[in-house]
Amino acid sequence: MAEQPRSQTSRDLETFRRWVAETPVGGMVFFGGAGVSTESGIPDFRSSDGLFVQKYPCPPEQMVSRSFFDARPREFFDFYCERMIALDARPNQAHRKLAELERAGACAAVVTQNIDGLHQEAGSKNVFELHGSALRNYCRKCRAPYTVEQLLALRAEAADGVPRCPACGGIVKPDVVLYEEPLDEAVLQGALVAIQQADLLVVAGTSLAVYPAAGLIDYFTGNRLVIINRTPAPRDRQADLCIAADVGVAFDF
User: Any idea which positions bind Zn(2+) (predicted)?
Assistant: First the structure.
């Protein structure tokens, strides 16, 4: 989809907001990606900003893979803690509006590929975190839970920069789905059912390039599919409405 003229985008936004208002109670499901949180100051780690070439030894997808975590944990945590933890980030307009729509009974569920916990911080309750959460961590050996603040403190205390459980010495791993790891089956199934039951599915801030998460859209059989993304996406041709705008702008109503 080519970049839309402002007038066309304005009409599309009006149509989108009207569809939200017309959707039956509990009929809307939101499926979001990194573009939902960029307006909160969290960069898409795939963005080409030169940092990876300058500072890191491998492409980001490799550095957040399970094999890299196992083989080179110190370098994993160097990248992960600098690029994928954003404790200062706060919910933006999209997060807040989705929580409001849930409270009003319109939005049945949020399905997110993000790991920042901003949907819950904004007030959304029924959130399916496909890739886990950076706010949760656990010892791989004894399964003791740790907050993200505790993870960072343990890393700072470790001579090799690898956080370890004080109780048993096991490495503390973020509760996020790394490349080469499967999605949590219960979370995946919950997201699938929510999408199957949706009347209006809003896909925003994602190019739908990462599988198996991106394949969930194939289970949608409802009436209206809306895609909100600043750049064209492969699934645009399936959508009833494509909006070339920031996610926060689309949800500013």
Answer: 139, 142, 165, 168
